[in-house]
Amino acid sequence: MIVALGSLHREADGILRSGDYTEVDAPEDFLAYRPFFISGSAGALPVVVLSGSGSERATRAAKWAIEKFAPDAIIAFGFCSATRDLERSGDIVIAARVAGLPGAPFEWSIVDDINSLGPDRSLLLAARTAVEVSGLDYHHGTIVTISKSTTTAGAKQWLGEAINSNAVDTEAHSIATVANDARVPWIVVKSVLDDRDFNVPTIGDRIGSGPYERGVSAYIKHVSKAPRDLPALIKLRRSSTAASTALRIFMTAFMDAITPMSIGERNS
Q1: Region for 70 from its dihedrals, namely left if φ exceeds 0, alpha if ψ lies in -120 to 50, beta otherwise
Q2: pLDDT of the residue at 220
Q3: Cα–Cα distance measured from residue 38 to residue 43, given in angstroms and rounded to the nearest whole number
Q4: At what angle do helices 230-257 and 9-18 cross, to 10 degrees?
Protein backbone atom coordinates (compact mmCIF):
# COMPACT_ATOMS: atom_id res chain seq x y z
CA MET A 1 0.00 0.00 0.00
CA ILE A 2 1.13 3.53 -0.84
CA VAL A 3 0.09 6.47 1.35
CA ALA A 4 -0.01 9.90 -0.29
CA LEU A 5 0.43 12.64 2.31
CA GLY A 6 -0.68 16.18 1.45
CA SER A 7 -1.84 19.25 3.30
CA LEU A 8 -4.84 20.90 1.57
CA HIS A 9 -7.99 19.38 0.10
CA ARG A 10 -7.63 21.41 -3.09
CA GLU A 11 -4.22 19.81 -3.71
CA ALA A 12 -5.84 16.36 -3.68
CA ASP A 13 -9.08 17.33 -5.41
CA GLY A 14 -8.07 15.99 -8.82
CA ILE A 15 -6.71 12.76 -7.36
CA LEU A 16 -9.82 12.11 -5.31
CA ARG A 17 -12.11 12.84 -8.25
CA SER A 18 -10.19 10.43 -10.46
CA GLY A 19 -10.79 7.41 -8.21
CA ASP A 20 -13.41 5.69 -6.12
CA TYR A 21 -12.52 7.01 -2.66
CA THR A 22 -14.27 6.68 0.68
CA GLU A 23 -13.51 8.95 3.62
CA VAL A 24 -12.31 7.14 6.74
CA ASP A 25 -12.07 8.32 10.34
CA ALA A 26 -8.98 10.37 11.16
CA PRO A 27 -7.83 12.23 14.30
CA GLU A 28 -7.97 15.98 14.86
CA ASP A 29 -9.32 17.63 11.71
CA PHE A 30 -7.13 15.56 9.39
CA LEU A 31 -8.79 14.00 6.36
CA ALA A 32 -8.15 10.44 5.16
CA TYR A 33 -9.49 8.63 2.10
CA ARG A 34 -9.20 4.96 1.23
CA PRO A 35 -9.63 3.87 -2.42
CA PHE A 36 -11.83 0.97 -3.46
CA PHE A 37 -8.81 -0.57 -5.20
CA ILE A 38 -5.84 -0.26 -2.87
CA SER A 39 -2.31 -0.10 -4.24
CA GLY A 40 -1.01 -3.54 -5.02
CA SER A 41 -4.09 -4.55 -7.01
CA ALA A 42 -5.49 -3.77 -10.44
CA GLY A 43 -6.49 -0.14 -10.73
CA ALA A 44 -4.08 0.76 -7.93
CA LEU A 45 -4.59 4.02 -6.06
CA PRO A 46 -2.90 5.43 -2.97
CA VAL A 47 -4.51 6.06 0.38
CA VAL A 48 -4.72 9.87 0.73
CA VAL A 49 -4.12 11.65 4.05
CA LEU A 50 -4.43 15.45 4.36
CA SER A 51 -2.98 17.18 7.40
CA GLY A 52 -3.54 20.87 6.87
CA SER A 53 -0.67 23.32 6.58
CA GLY A 54 2.61 23.40 8.48
CA SER A 55 5.35 21.10 9.71
CA GLU A 56 3.77 20.29 13.06
CA ARG A 57 0.56 19.10 11.46
CA ALA A 58 2.47 17.17 8.79
CA THR A 59 4.55 15.41 11.45
CA ARG A 60 1.51 14.29 13.42
CA ALA A 61 -0.36 13.16 10.31
CA ALA A 62 2.63 11.19 9.01
CA LYS A 63 3.04 9.36 12.33
CA TRP A 64 -0.68 8.56 12.43
CA ALA A 65 -0.73 7.38 8.79
CA ILE A 66 2.19 5.01 9.34
CA GLU A 67 0.60 3.55 12.45
CA LYS A 68 -2.85 3.30 10.86
CA PHE A 69 -2.02 1.97 7.39
CA ALA A 70 1.48 0.42 7.71
CA PRO A 71 2.36 1.62 4.20
CA ASP A 72 5.00 0.07 1.94
CA ALA A 73 5.94 3.60 0.91
CA ILE A 74 4.96 7.24 1.34
CA ILE A 75 4.70 9.97 -1.27
CA ALA A 76 4.51 13.51 0.06
CA PHE A 77 2.61 15.57 -2.51
CA GLY A 78 0.99 18.97 -2.81
CA PHE A 79 1.68 22.54 -3.89
CA CYS A 80 4.95 24.40 -3.64
CA SER A 81 6.40 27.80 -4.51
CA ALA A 82 8.99 28.08 -7.25
CA THR A 83 12.45 29.39 -6.44
CA ARG A 84 13.77 29.29 -10.01
CA ASP A 85 12.91 31.61 -12.88
CA LEU A 86 11.97 28.92 -15.42
CA GLU A 87 9.48 27.10 -13.21
CA ARG A 88 5.81 27.75 -13.94
CA SER A 89 2.47 26.96 -12.31
CA GLY A 90 1.59 23.32 -12.87
CA ASP A 91 5.20 22.18 -13.29
CA ILE A 92 6.15 19.12 -11.25
CA VAL A 93 9.13 19.26 -8.89
CA ILE A 94 10.67 15.92 -7.89
CA ALA A 95 12.86 16.19 -4.82
CA ALA A 96 16.37 14.81 -5.14
CA ARG A 97 16.83 16.12 -1.58
CA VAL A 98 14.57 17.78 0.97
CA ALA A 99 16.12 20.33 3.31
CA GLY A 100 14.80 21.77 6.55
CA LEU A 101 15.35 25.47 7.20
CA PRO A 102 14.12 26.37 10.71
CA GLY A 103 13.36 29.75 12.17
CA ALA A 104 12.18 33.06 10.77
CA PRO A 105 13.55 34.62 7.55
CA PHE A 106 15.91 36.96 9.41
CA GLU A 107 17.62 33.86 10.87
CA TRP A 108 18.18 32.10 7.55
CA SER A 109 21.32 34.01 6.59
CA ILE A 110 23.18 32.65 9.62
CA VAL A 111 22.31 29.00 9.04
CA ASP A 112 25.53 27.11 8.37
CA ASP A 113 24.33 23.52 8.23
CA ILE A 114 21.16 22.58 6.38
CA ASN A 115 19.63 19.29 7.46
CA SER A 116 18.78 17.42 4.26
CA LEU A 117 17.48 13.96 3.41
CA GLY A 118 17.38 11.90 0.22
CA PRO A 119 14.43 9.83 -1.07
CA ASP A 120 14.19 6.15 -1.92
CA ARG A 121 15.92 5.48 -5.24
CA SER A 122 13.29 3.11 -6.58
CA LEU A 123 10.54 5.63 -5.89
CA LEU A 124 12.65 8.34 -7.47
CA LEU A 125 12.98 6.25 -10.63
CA ALA A 126 9.22 5.66 -10.67
CA ALA A 127 8.59 9.41 -10.33
CA ARG A 128 10.95 10.20 -13.20
CA THR A 129 9.24 7.54 -15.30
CA ALA A 130 5.82 8.99 -14.46
CA VAL A 131 6.61 12.53 -15.63
CA GLU A 132 8.30 11.34 -18.78
CA VAL A 133 5.44 9.00 -19.72
CA SER A 134 2.76 11.59 -18.95
CA GLY A 135 4.59 14.45 -20.70
CA LEU A 136 4.49 16.78 -17.70
CA ASP A 137 7.01 19.61 -17.42
CA TYR A 138 9.18 18.81 -14.43
CA HIS A 139 12.25 19.81 -12.45
CA HIS A 140 14.56 17.71 -10.31
CA GLY A 141 16.39 19.19 -7.33
CA THR A 142 16.15 20.32 -3.72
CA ILE A 143 12.87 21.22 -2.03
CA VAL A 144 13.39 23.32 1.09
CA THR A 145 10.87 23.27 3.94
CA ILE A 146 10.41 26.42 6.02
CA SER A 147 8.27 27.22 9.05
CA LYS A 148 6.11 29.86 7.37
CA SER A 149 4.97 30.26 3.77
CA THR A 150 7.08 32.48 1.56
CA THR A 151 4.97 35.29 0.15
CA THR A 152 7.49 37.59 -1.53
CA ALA A 153 9.43 37.19 -4.73
CA GLY A 154 12.60 38.30 -2.97
CA ALA A 155 12.42 35.52 -0.37
CA LYS A 156 11.80 32.88 -3.01
CA GLN A 157 14.69 34.13 -5.11
CA TRP A 158 17.00 34.09 -2.07
CA LEU A 159 16.03 30.51 -1.25
CA GLY A 160 16.78 29.48 -4.80
CA GLU A 161 20.19 31.10 -4.82
CA ALA A 162 21.44 30.68 -1.24
CA ILE A 163 20.06 27.19 -0.59
CA ASN A 164 20.30 26.09 -4.23
CA SER A 165 16.70 24.92 -4.08
CA ASN A 166 14.13 24.40 -6.80
CA ALA A 167 11.04 24.88 -4.66
CA VAL A 168 9.86 25.70 -1.15
CA ASP A 169 7.04 24.32 1.00
CA THR A 170 6.10 23.92 4.68
CA GLU A 171 5.68 20.13 5.10
CA ALA A 172 8.03 17.95 3.01
CA HIS A 173 11.04 17.73 5.31
CA SER A 174 8.85 16.87 8.30
CA ILE A 175 7.18 14.00 6.44
CA ALA A 176 10.53 12.72 5.19
CA THR A 177 11.94 12.80 8.72
CA VAL A 178 9.05 10.78 10.14
CA ALA A 179 9.25 8.25 7.29
CA ASN A 180 13.03 7.92 7.74
CA ASP A 181 12.65 7.32 11.46
CA ALA A 182 10.02 4.64 10.77
CA ARG A 183 12.15 3.14 7.97
CA VAL A 184 9.39 3.61 5.42
CA PRO A 185 10.58 4.42 1.86
CA TRP A 186 9.49 7.90 0.79
CA ILE A 187 9.57 10.45 -1.98
CA VAL A 188 8.46 14.08 -2.27
CA VAL A 189 6.74 15.32 -5.43
CA LYS A 190 5.21 18.79 -5.57
CA SER A 191 3.39 20.88 -8.15
CA VAL A 192 4.25 24.57 -8.53
CA LEU A 193 1.46 26.90 -7.43
CA ASP A 194 3.16 30.30 -7.64
CA ASP A 195 6.05 31.42 -9.81
CA ARG A 196 9.25 32.74 -8.26
CA ASP A 197 8.46 36.37 -9.12
CA PHE A 198 4.86 36.27 -7.89
CA ASN A 199 4.06 38.05 -4.61
CA VAL A 200 1.44 36.00 -2.74
CA PRO A 201 -1.28 37.96 -0.89
CA THR A 202 -1.08 37.57 2.88
CA ILE A 203 -4.33 35.57 2.95
CA GLY A 204 -2.41 32.76 1.25
CA ASP A 205 -0.53 31.96 4.47
CA ARG A 206 -2.47 29.13 6.14
CA ILE A 207 0.11 27.70 8.56
CA GLY A 208 -1.53 25.80 11.39
CA SER A 209 -4.93 25.59 9.70
CA GLY A 210 -6.84 22.54 8.54
CA PRO A 211 -7.10 20.86 5.13
CA TYR A 212 -10.13 22.77 3.83
CA GLU A 213 -9.81 26.04 1.94
CA ARG A 214 -11.07 29.28 3.44
CA GLY A 215 -14.65 30.15 2.58
CA VAL A 216 -15.62 32.72 -0.04
CA SER A 217 -16.57 35.18 2.68
CA ALA A 218 -12.97 35.28 3.93
CA TYR A 219 -11.71 36.26 0.49
CA ILE A 220 -14.44 38.87 0.03
CA LYS A 221 -13.49 40.40 3.37
CA HIS A 222 -9.81 40.41 2.41
CA VAL A 223 -10.45 42.04 -0.98
CA SER A 224 -12.64 44.70 0.64
CA LYS A 225 -9.63 45.72 2.72
CA ALA A 226 -6.98 45.13 0.04
CA PRO A 227 -8.66 45.52 -3.39
CA ARG A 228 -5.30 45.53 -5.18
CA ASP A 229 -4.91 41.85 -4.25
CA LEU A 230 -7.88 40.79 -6.40
CA PRO A 231 -5.89 40.14 -9.63
CA ALA A 232 -3.33 38.11 -7.66
CA LEU A 233 -6.06 36.04 -6.00
CA ILE A 234 -7.69 35.34 -9.37
CA LYS A 235 -4.32 34.24 -10.73
CA LEU A 236 -3.75 31.98 -7.72
CA ARG A 237 -7.12 30.34 -8.27
CA ARG A 238 -6.23 29.52 -11.87
CA SER A 239 -2.79 28.34 -10.83
CA SER A 240 -4.36 26.09 -8.20
CA THR A 241 -6.42 24.35 -10.89
CA ALA A 242 -3.33 23.81 -13.05
CA ALA A 243 -1.29 22.51 -10.12
CA SER A 244 -4.03 20.13 -8.96
CA THR A 245 -4.51 18.79 -12.48
CA ALA A 246 -0.78 18.13 -12.81
CA LEU A 247 -0.78 16.20 -9.53
CA ARG A 248 -3.70 14.07 -10.72
CA ILE A 249 -1.94 13.21 -13.97
CA PHE A 250 1.31 12.51 -12.17
CA MET A 251 -0.23 10.30 -9.47
CA THR A 252 -1.97 8.09 -12.02
CA ALA A 253 1.28 7.57 -13.94
CA PHE A 254 3.29 7.13 -10.74
CA MET A 255 1.00 4.40 -9.41
CA ASP A 256 1.25 2.62 -12.76
CA ALA A 257 5.05 2.77 -12.47
CA ILE A 258 5.01 1.27 -8.96
CA THR A 259 4.33 -2.45 -9.34
CA PRO A 260 3.56 -4.81 -6.47
CA MET A 261 6.80 -6.63 -7.19
CA SER A 262 8.94 -3.48 -6.94
CA ILE A 263 7.38 -2.59 -3.58
CA GLY A 264 8.12 -6.05 -2.25
CA GLU A 265 11.70 -5.90 -3.50
CA ARG A 266 12.32 -2.57 -1.76
CA ASN A 267 11.23 -3.91 1.57
CA SER A 268 12.74 -7.40 1.36
Answers
A1: left
A2: 61
A3: 8
A4: 40
What's the rounded Cα separation, in Å, for the pair 196 and 155?
Answer: 9
**Nearest 5 degrees, angle CA 159-CA 170-CA 35?**
135
Output the average pLDDT for the chain: 85
Give the pLDDT mean for 137-155. Answer: 89
Closest CA to 57 of 189, 174, 182: 174
Domains and CATH numbers, the chain: 76-266 (3.40.50.1580)
pTM beyond 0.90: the answer is no
Would you tell me the crossing angle of helices 216-225 and 230-257 to the nearest 10 degrees? 140
212-243 pLDDT per residue, tens: 776 556 656 666 777 786 777 788 889 999 99
Q: Give the whole-angstrom CA distance, residue 193 versus residue 200.
A: 10
Q: Which residues contact 127 (CB under 8 A, 6 or more apart)?
A: 94, 187, 189, 250, 254, 257
According to the model, what pLDDT value does residue 105 have?
60
Distance CA 15, CA 2 (A): 14
Number of CB atoms found within 10 A of residue 30's CB:
18
CA distance 76 to 208: 18
